[in-house]
Amino acid sequence: MENPVLQIIVASTRPGRAGRTIADWFHARAVDSGLFQVELIDLAEVGLPFLDEPNHPRLRQYVNAHTKEWSATIDRGDAYVFVTPEYNHSFNAVLKNALDYLHQEWQHKTAGFVSYGGVSGGTRAANSLRQVTSTLKMIPVLEAVNIPFHAQFIGEDGKLHPNDVMDAAADAMLAEMARLTGALRPMRVA
């Protein structure tokens, strides 16, 4: 059986954002783990408009091409890591919109969080995401990567230079996600 598909979703779309840099580091870490087939999905590139489907997502009766493409992309995944900034004690609207577009595609899959920000390291964004992902019947793992004062870890080369705590947190989260994703596979197949 081949490895499950982990999709790393970059939430921030702002010019000058750190999210893609952080996601690139996590992507490399996930690939090196050998636990998953890894895909990087950047919401800035996906470019979903504000939810414009006439039918409730639970019906899966999509009319727009961008929704059908988004559905097919997310359907392919077995697990997700959301790389999210913290905006006003929560996660950003672009990510909420991307989550709200779909329903069944998210179910019975694991969710992990790489959050970043100031002193809190984006923990409030991750906590808000736990509520939303649970409502979509995803299973969030306890392990997470929280990066406080993230700018200090981005070098002049434009890359993230993590410390040992960040690397260990990423490895722990990936290991737990792999265990849980395997356990949930029969529910997704059924």
Walkthrough of the structure:
By secondary structure, the protein is of the alpha/beta class. It has one domain: Flavodoxin domain (Rossmann fold), CATH 3.40.50.360. Helix content is 41%, strand content 17%. Strands 1, 2, 3, 4, 5 and 6 form a 6-stranded parallel β-sheet that branches. β4, α5 and β5 form a beta-alpha-beta unit.
Order of helices and strands: EHEHHEHEHEEH
Percent helix: 40-55%
What is the 3D shape? globular
The count of strands amounts to 6
Key words describing this protein structure:
6 strands; single chain; 190 residues; 6 helices; globular; alpha/beta; Rossmann fold; six-stranded parallel β-sheet
Short recap of the structure:
By secondary structure, the chain is an alpha/beta fold.
Write the layout of secondary structure elements.
Elements: E1 5-10, H1 19-33, E2 37-42, H2 43-46, H3 65-75, E3 79-85, H4 93-100, E4 110-117, H5 123-135, E5 139-140, E6 145-148, H6 164-189
